[in-house]
Amino acid sequence: MNQIIVGMGEALWDVLPEGKQIGGAPANFAYHVSQFGFDSRVVTAIGRDALGDEILDVFSAKQLQGIVARVDYPTGTVQVTLDSEGIPCYEIKEGVAWDYIPFTSRLEELAQRSAAVCFGSLAQRSIVSRTTINRFLDAMPTGGDCLKIFDINLRQHFYGKDIIIDSLKKCNILKINDEELIVLSRMFGYQGTDLQQTCRTLLTDYQLKMLILTCGTNGSYVFSEGITSFQETPRVTVADTVGAGDSFTAAFTAALLKGETVPEAHKLAVRVSAFVCTQSGAMPRLPVSF
């Protein structure tokens, strides 16, 4: 397949109780997309340090390509603790390499050749990376088939209303979980409506192609014009949930680009993310059955 799919933003080390694991939603997304046969790229920045060297080694071992800038800031780390149900809590370090992703001619060329990109709010906490992400989105093809996926990923205090609104205006697919949707409802003054109605309001207000709502063990929804798809969450033995949401987004994107319907893409995404929950770390190898 010659369609390029990009994960853009943070690349870092998740420091888990059992040791460190490569992490960051864009890298997780790009890796899982590559497992479906697509030409995927990760766009990020790392430090000129040993942790940065190790990230490049992992990318090489997983055959994950990208444009990875080396900058004069430390490679990002996140301290991850898991609760009794395997749900992660994050302490994200500030002033790190992925806050300073530069926009270059290579990046502009990549944007012009990309069929899809996934980006979030976290990497936009810095004006440098925020500007780069926005320039990348603006340089992408303008046709209706190009997918610009805003996987919102609200973390700690690293987001604001202006950044979210700007991202909603630039994306055509929003992925959000139920807790994040409550935050947006309060932020935008949508109180008094249920979650599904809020989703439909966002779909209309920002002229989105689709809105994906994940509700943990209570299932997930995909809303698009004239279609509402619901899938129950499979019951599995959870090792941890790190990277499960990114694998969901990756599988859904890959299925859409292969021409599958929204319900078919949704079903695959749920199966893939459930499998990732049974594995440790964010980038397990998927079974060939997927």
Explain this structure.
The chain is α/β, with parallel strands linked by helices. It has one domain (4-277): UDP-N-acetylmuramoyl-L-alanine:D-glutamate ligase, CATH 3.40.1190.20. The protein is 36% helix and 26% strand. The chain contains nine helices and 13 strands. The protein has helices at residues 25-34, 50-61, 105-112, 127-139, 161-170, 178-188, 195-205, 244-257, 262-277; strands at residues 4-8, 12-16, 19-23, 39-47, 65-71, 76-82, 88-92, 114-119, 147-151, 173-177, 210-214, 220-224, 227-231. The strands form two sheets. A nine-stranded mixed sheet has the order 5-4-1-8-9-10-11-12-13, sandwiched between helices. It has a four-stranded mixed sheet with strand order 3-2-6-7. β11 and β12 form a beta hairpin. The longest helix is centred in the C-terminal third of the chain and has 16 residues, at 262-277. The mean pLDDT is 93.
Annotate the secondary structure layout.
Blueprint: E1 4-8, E2 12-16, E3 19-23, H1 25-34, E4 39-47, H2 50-61, E5 65-71, E6 76-82, E7 88-92, H3 105-112, E8 114-119, H4 127-139, E9 147-151, H5 161-170, E10 173-177, H6 178-188, H7 195-205, E11 210-214, E12 220-224, E13 227-231, H8 244-257, H9 262-277
Parallel strand pairs: 1-4, 1-8, 2-6, 4-5, 8-9, 9-10, 10-11
Antiparallel strand pairs: 2-3, 6-7, 11-12, 12-13
Helix pairs in contact: 1-8, 3-4, 8-9
Oligomer: single chain
The helix-strand sequence is EEEHEHEEEHEHEHEHHEEEHH
CATH fold-level label:
UDP-N-acetylmuramoyl-L-alanine:D-glutamate ligase
Residue fraction in strands? 25-35%
Shape call: globular
How helix-rich are the residues, as a percent range? Answer: 25-40%
- Low-confidence residue ranges: none
Overall strand count = 13
SS-based structural class?
alpha/beta
Secondary structure tally, helices: 9
Distance between the terminal alpha carbons, to the nearest Å?
17 Å
- CATH domain class: Alpha Beta
Q: How is the main sheet built?
A: 9 strands, mixed
